[in-house]
Amino acid sequence: MALSGVRVLELAGLAPAPLCGMILADFGARVVRVDRTPRSAVATDVQGRGKRSLALDLKRPPGAAVLRRLCCQADVLIEPFRHGVMEKLGLGPEVLLQENPRLIYARLTGFGQSGQYAKSAGHDINYLALSGVLSKLGRKDENPYAPVNLLADFAGGGVLCAMGIVTALYERTKSGKGQIIDASMVEGVAYLSSFLWKSQNLGLWNRPRGENLLDSGAPFYETYKTSDGKFMAVGAIEPQFYEQLIKGLGLDSDKLPSQLSFSDWPKMKEKFASIFAQKTQAEWCSIFDGTDACVTPVLSFDEVASHQHNKQRSSFIKNDQEEISPRPAPLLSRTPAVPSFKRDPFIGEHTEEILLEYGFTKQEIAKLYSDKVIEFSEPKANL
Ligand SMILES: C[C@H](CCC[C@@H](C)[C@H]1CC[C@H]2[C@@H]3[C@H](O)C[C@@H]4C[C@H](O)CC[C@]4(C)[C@H]3C[C@H](O)[C@]12C)C(=O)SCCNC(=O)CCNC(=O)[C@H](O)C(C)(C)COP(=O)(O)OP(=O)(O)OC[C@H]1O[C@@H](n2cnc3c(N)ncnc32)[C@H](O)[C@@H]1OP(=O)(O)O
């Protein structure tokens, strides 16, 4: 796999850092999740695929010393705490990079390492708000709407941090040097929105929120309810595709206002809605599948893996516990990701194995254990 041989230490965090670590693991890195002690009854990381767990108390100096030793042999450290936490533990980048100048020290936070919010708590919705992006999301006359925490946490956070890490690993092949990655989710999600910024002069966003082409203003970029209570998604932007939509709906474009007549959009939405409400989702699929009308069913999680297109591409996978989840993307032709099919690790499940692998002796491990700096877990203890 593309990242095989890369050793990653991921300090356990909430949502974004676990995704970042999981992406690296899917593509072949050996990812160790460093969990807290005392170990909680249940691991809250649901993105532990392909990782191993080491339970280590970083608040105690011998625990921090263990992490320092691990970092000497690691390629990447991912830390998900607000600015200042790692420094307080004596594990700041100046310390760890001095001991291992090849280390890539990725700091995945909401507000970044500087600025007046750097030490403040926050979550996806706050980062989205500060990036400006939240002001663009939502329907007409409604408050801004934060979709599930996909945008800041995962896209602007976990994914961009993984991209930063891979970029730094590539650069290291030339310079031989590591570096610090300051991955702020505010900036990550703002960067993702570059199209919104760069298209300001195209007239795409001149109208209030929810009344523009791509923000639920246009009748041809909308979802519509079907007679069986399901939905269809319509994205017929270009005139030639719009024409196919009109045809599929059984309408005559000569008798309709022009596609870009903004003032007619609310009326056209009502018309489209009343037509979509007359057939089931399956009936609409049989009309639109195989056309260029850009009309697709809105699938539920229960339906998505068995949809023909997704099945043909094996886009979803089942692990040993029969849990379905998306296959890692994108697909690399020679070295694709090979996700683990095993269950996620229990907290502390691999503590001993990892420490031995990183050169700790059995005696050192026994001492750390008796001093309660590390913990082990038998799988059954967590069930
Ligand atoms: C919207 C999302 C968040 C969604 C999260 C949900 C999925 C989950 C949130 C609550 C969960 C539920 C809950 O736990 C109850 C149940 C528990 C059960 O086990 C499972 C079911 C639950 C229902 C459970 C289910 C789900 O898991 C939840 C619903 C987001 O936006 S995530 C993005 C958040 N932001 C960031 O990540 C940005 C950077 N980080 C931060 O800004 C802060 O970390 C944050 C997130 C604000 C949290 O602040 P906090 O004060 O808690 O932490 P920090 O200041 O960063 O400091 C960390 C302290 O911990 C110490 N520490 C760390 N590692 C160790 C260690 N190995 N050993 C010892 N100590 C450690 C560290 O030293 C710091 O200590 P100090 O505070 O003393 O400095």
From TrEMBL:
E.C. code: 5.1.99.4
Pathway terms, separated by semicolons: Lipid metabolism; bile acid biosynthesis
Pfam families: CoA_transf_3
InterPro entries: CoA-transferase_III (IPR050509), CoA-Trfase_fam_III (IPR003673), CoA-Trfase_III_dom3_sf (IPR044855), CoA-Trfase_III_dom_1_sf (IPR023606)
Gene Ontology cellular component terms for the protein in this record: mitochondrion; peroxisome; plasma membrane
GO molecular function: alpha-methylacyl-CoA racemase activity
Gene Ontology BP, a term: bile acid metabolic process
Catalysed reactions, semicolon-separated: (25R)-3alpha,7alpha,12alpha-trihydroxy-5beta-cholestan-26-oyl-CoA = (25S)-3alpha,7alpha,12alpha-trihydroxy-5beta-cholestan-26-oyl-CoA; (2R,6)-dimethylheptanoyl-CoA = (2S,6)-dimethylheptanoyl-CoA; a (2S)-2-methylacyl-CoA = a (2R)-2-methylacyl-CoA
Domain of life, per lineage: Eukaryota
Gene3D superfamilies the record matches: Crotonobetainyl-coa:carnitine coa-transferase, domain 1, formyl-coa transferase, domain 3
UniProt entry tagged with the keyword Isomerase: yes
Keywords: Isomerase
Enzyme class: isomerase
Family listed: Belongs to the CoA-transferase III family.
Alphabetized PANTHER family for the sequence: ALPHA-METHYLACYL-COA RACEMASE, SUCCINYL-COA--D-CITRAMALATE COA-TRANSFERASE
Designated name of the protein: Alpha-methylacyl-CoA racemase
Biological source species: Aquila chrysaetos chrysaetos
Gene that produces this protein: AMACR
